[in-house]
Amino acid sequence: MDSPLSRPALLALSLLLLALYLARRHLARGKNRTYPPVAGTVLHQVLNFGRLVEYQTELSRRYPTFRMLTPTCNYVYTVEPANVEYILKTNFANYGKGVMTHDVMEDLLGDGIFNVDGAKWRHQRKVASHEFSTRVLRDYSSAVFRDTAAELAGIVAAAARGAGERLDISDLLMRSTLDSIFEIGFGVNLGSLTGSSEEGAAFARAFDDASEQVLYRFFDLFWKVKRFFSIASEAAMKRSVRTIDGFVYAVIDRKIEQMGRNHQEFAKKEDILSRFLLERERDPGCFDNKYLRDIILNFVIAGRDTTAGTLAWFLYELCRNQRVQEKIAEEVRAATATGDRDVGAQELVACLTEDAIGKMQYLHAALAETLRLYPAVPMDVKYCFSDDTLPDGYAVNQGDMVNYQPYPMGRMKFLWGADAEEFRPERWLNDDGVFVPESPFKFTAFQFTGGASHLLGEGVRVQADEDLCGRAAPPLQTRDVGC
């Protein structure tokens, strides 16, 4: 991406940052607080935007916790697991999205779980805990992913039989995971993998464009001005959001119409939107269409890019590591009892039972190793609500943006050993070849990523003791949910 600021603007910004830093140092004199070292400014990040995660990794090797200066606040970055646990668990209430992050992402994510704090966050966490603990949704989502995987495998097989046809695997994975997660969320197949729906294709393009623009906003000091005047990138953002909203609200309206025509048949539907609409019928004040749109789009954005990106890197590493590829293939053949037979995608999918997947310990390790080196969310930011001191002794101020960094953490030798940058699935297995998980504050991939199903991943334990609308409900089994 081109820098969102011109070089004169960058020069002016650097001078402003230097003045602010000197002023803050002057004001801080006499206070007995130790702040993280300054490793640079937002100017340096903009100049290294094309290799930002590598740049942050280089800094993290020098400073496990450091600051980057901006015109409005400090950005604090850390790779210390003790700090991560403190931010995400021990003092969780003091670190949230904050106003700035909410403003940047509101047009796309609205008041969904990844963009709110407090009561709305707690309510949606209970929604997630309630819904994703049900066997019905797990079985439904597994079936959707299997069907889409078979469809994807068919496309790849057809290309392999062709005369030198090239495929963009990353693009195919993006489209297939969007189809899957959208069908789980809204009960509608977008058809983006096959290109069978023009409306679905338009939604997918708008979704991609809006997601990209949200990232740019974090580095563009003038995005609000552009939005106010509806110019440049923000004009495109408005068009994308209009397309997204039009499509999603049309799906919701059709669902409501279906429910009115045949309620008994509608009650059998297993997608998240249908279940929410049935719950709202019992309590009309529970949530409106806007809240439904926000909740489910957050699940879609959580499950789409994260899953597709991880699979792309996984295939990349298999291509680079023939030994790992062969071990996984051998394990899959043994677990599915397919032996050396040449089976088609449909037959293999039918063999992928929960029991068979549970036997694939090396595959599990290879996926974990992929996420360690290529986490779908390389950095995650939290807003500090009040002055605090991190476990490593460094102070943070109210208003600071505190980042933990999964990508650099996966490359730290003090965490993973001298071979930290090597792809070695065996590091996750014990002597019996059984997968052994790491601390979720050292291996942070599931704190944010992995789709809606991973909301029941590793992390803090909560009790889902209310139903979707917050009423008391029969106790559910306590489950682990991400932070």
TrEMBL record:
Pfam families: p450. It comes from the Eukaryota. Keywords: Iron, Metal-binding, Oxidoreductase, Signal. Residues 1-30 form the signal peptide. CDD domains: CYP86A. GO terms for molecular function: heme binding; iron ion binding; monooxygenase activity; oxidoreductase activity, acting on paired donors, with incorporation or reduction of molecular oxygen. Belongs to the cytochrome P450 family. This is Cytochrome P450 704C1. It comes from Panicum virgatum (Blackwell switchgrass).
